[in-house]
Amino acid sequence: MRESSLEVVRGDFVVLPCSFFTSSPLSRLNVIWTLAPFSSPETPIQVIVYDHGQVFEDPSLIGRVGFTGIPWSADIILNDTRVSDAGVYRCMVNNPPETADPGIGELALSILAPPSLPVCQWDGDVDMGGSVTLSCTVAEGVPTPEIHWDKLNSVEISLPINMEGDLSASVQIVNVSSQTSGLYRCSATNLLGTENCYVNLSVYSTPDSSSGILQGVLLTLSMSLLLLALLVLVLWLHRTGQDGWWREGKDEEECYNEIRYTPTLMKRSFV
Hints:
The chain is α+β, with helices and mostly antiparallel strands.
């Protein structure tokens, strides 16, 4: 091995070097490449093998891995790299009839990847005086992304966060008010880029109890005035009706008296 570690951006290709020296013919050359993934180093896999002129690839890597110059070089090329390709690669070279121990070299390969799109969520009570938790989770990113929460006003305000592992961060907001309403942004950043997600938070204000009491008093006063007006109207109509009835009765009485005394007057006229 000429190098002990390599880095490559996900999706690119990389050449893993493995040089050797032998004085024997190469007809019986044997080269084995293995990988101990960073995600599960206790379960290494066989990447590619060259044995007696034949090449054998791991089924999961067919079409993505190959030797670059076998049998004179044991270098391999890995195409379309993935995050799962990261780990410690080991190259073992043996060329019988040489009796020396097989040559072994190791190389650590890191696959760099930009942050995935984070997922933003909120939970809690958005009524006045309540508490709200904003959370942000990133699925992947190499190197590990840095996570930040900001409130987007005319001036960005950075918020203190609570890290929950390497790829999740939350913000706790207590005693929320109308000033808490606004747009919040979670940013996940590493050397390959930045991805964002957003939460639009709206805090609802409950009606003031004193305002409710005042509205009740005003409503009661309005109803009382309305009832008073109706009472005055009824009394006026009743009084008007009595005056009309009294006038009608008086007219009838006058008419009756006039008729009653008429014969007497007529009688006196004949005497």
